[in-house]
Design brief:
198 residues, mainly alpha, 8 helices, 79% helix, 0% strand
Length: 198
Amino acid sequence: MMNYVWAGLILASILFGACTGRMQQVTDAVYSGGGAAVEMALTLAAVMAVWGGLMRVAEKAGVTAAISKILSPALGFLFPGLQRNGPAARAISMNVSANLLGLGNAATPFGVEAMRRLQEENPLKDTASRHMITFVVLNTASIQLIPTTIAGLRAKYGSGNPMDIMPAVWLASAVALIAGQVVNRLLAVCSERRRSLG
């Protein structure tokens, strides 16, 4: 759907540029926008490479295993019945660790692995399990201790102190996580009641 929206915007820009005699401005915008997109992609790639490398080093050094142990009580509360040292729990811990560091791109492979492992444990293969739904909410509305990607973008565009947004990020992500999990639990209770009544 979004492909059609973007294609429509591009065609409308060309059409209006041609109708108003401003094709040169359209051409300039294409070149400047393309150059800015490549610059931004390279900046973000560098940030991801550094932090992704640090995550790999942390994994090999056993730091992520220690983080998994620290997160184990919270994950046990959010995922009751999930084996704490199982492959799904480990993948969830790695995903949460990457999200805490603000590395959404580095968290994605761990998130995919966690969902694959949770699906293996899911008795109803055509329906998302409670653990899968909880994980999606946890991954989407995750607390970020270090907003790496945003800080990288702010530094790229000349911010004097790219990390001064940290308190706002902590507050916003904590509120989003709490609200998401509360709604998730309420919907789970409503679903169980409907199932028991029907």
